[in-house]
Specification:
The complex is a heterodimer of chains A (about 110) and B (about 110). Chain A has about 110 residues and is mainly beta. Chain A has no helices and eleven strands. In chain A, strands 2, 4, 5, 6, 9, 10 and 11 form a seven-stranded mixed sheet that branches. In chain A, strand 9 and strand 10 (about 105) form a beta hairpin. Chain B has about 110 residues and is an all-beta fold. In chain B, a hairpin with a 4-residue loop joins strand 7 (about 60-65) and strand 8. Chain B starts with a strand and ends with a strand. Classes of the chains: A mainly beta (about 110), B mainly beta (about 110). The interface between A and B is medium-sized, with 24 and 25 residues.
Amino acid sequence: SAVISQKPSRDICQRGTSLTIQCQVDSQVTMMFWYRQQPGQSLTLIATANQGSEATYESGFVIDKFPISRPNLTFSTLTVSNMSPEDSSIYLCSVDDTGYAGYTFGSGTRLTVV
Amino acid sequence: QKEVEQDPGPLSVPEGAIVSLNCTYSNSAFQYFMWYRQYSRKGPELLMYTYSSGNKEDGRFTAQVDKSSKYISLFIRDSQPSDSATYLCAMSAYSGAGSYQLTFGKGTKLSVIP
C-alpha cells in the first residue's frame, strides 16, 4: 500500500491565523482525500483533490475556509484559514490504492486553535 | 438515523479475551465493509475488508458481514495489549465514474488489560 507523509504532525495556532498541512505520497495517485476527525465523531470528508482540477468540497465545507492545492500526482496541501477554536481537530489526508475505497491514511495533523 | 452506527465504548477486556466489535448500517448500497485500527496519535490503518456476506479470517481477526440484517462484526481472539486502539468500521458504495464513497462509524475504543 501507499506510504503517506503528512506534516506538521501537530501545531498550536492563534485564532485568526492560517495553517497549511502538507501531504506527500510515495506513488502517483489520481485522487487524494482530506478528512477531519473530531473527538467522538466519525471521520468527515472535507474534499477530494484531483490533480489538474478544482477540489470537490463536501456539504458544509467551502474553498475560502479550506483551500486545497494539488500541483502534481504525489502531493497536496490543505490550508485551514482564519482559524477559530472550533477548527481544533485532527486533519488527515488519504488515498485509495485499493479501488474500493480501502483508503490509506497519513498519520494526521493535530491542530489546536487558542 | 445515521447511515452507520457504532458503539463508541470504551470497551475494556482482560488479555486473552475474545473481543466483539459491531456496526449496523442502513444503506443497502454499501458493497465493501472495512475495519480500520487507529492507535493513539496515528492515522487509521486498514485492518480487513469484506465484500459479501459471510466470514473472513486473518490470523486472530475475523470479520463478519450479514447483509440481510445490515450488521457487521469484528472478532479478535486471544486479545493482546497491543490490540488496544480505536477500531472504526467503514463501508463504501459505488458513487459513479469508477469511484467509491466511504462512510465511517464513530469508532470503538478498546483497551486490553494485561
